[in-house]
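Quick sanity check, asparaginase:
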Amino acid sequence: MLARVPEAEEQAEVIAEQVINVGSTEVYPSDWLTLANRINARFNEDAEAAGAAVTHGTATLEETAYFLNLTVHDARPVVVTGAMRPPSAMGTDADNNLMDAIHVASARQSAGRGALVVLNNEIQAARDVTKTDSYRTERRHTADSEFDVSDIGELPRVDIAFAYAGVDGTVVDALVDAGVAGIVAAGLGSGGSPAPFMAALQRAVAADVPVVLATHVGTGRVVQTRRFTEAGYIVADNLHPKKARILLMLGLTQTSDTAELQRMMLEY
């Protein structure tokens, strides 16, 4: 990892040690003990050490960081970092995050602040930080986009069905009857809507019309729950209905596969 960022040596003299090598979903309390004890031992052995930078998968990163916040008995900084996109991925954040972690761990200003988490050019306290995006820090765009419209004369028709108190399935059924290529449901709250509206969306799915669940509230996201997935819905994540419509239109130029369309909603 350090070989990918030789600039790190300009920040500090870095001594690398692999304490544990598992995916973060397989990090257990026994590993917390191993890591905390090793950091404490290194600090006790080396009075000249400025701090410690810990690389970690993001799934359980916040838990490990908080454990270290409670169990490393030294004022020197412990900085935990990870990556939402692996080093093998285009536009990986792994190298920048590692560089930032080394920089913060070696800075005198970091001392006495407890364990820290550095990701996405931000420094967070281990006590307060939490993972809020299950997929990536940035969405794909421009040069990284898979959509090529150079040979497309017309986009598939996708319409938005708006939910509100007392709405039934009239509009949704009419859209299916009109032969639309896809429907974005601008739902209430976290994507749910009145039962007659949802029943019509189920009829659309049964008719092989892709249905994206979005929300028309100001902020937040529609989460890909097991219930939505089993019902055949695609969720818009935090895309507003009008933008989810654009993405679905483009997605339908590539595929009608629900799983692939869902991937696109989470990546862009």
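Posting the structure with no commentary besides this: The domain at 156-267 is CATH 3.40.50.40 (Rossmann fold).
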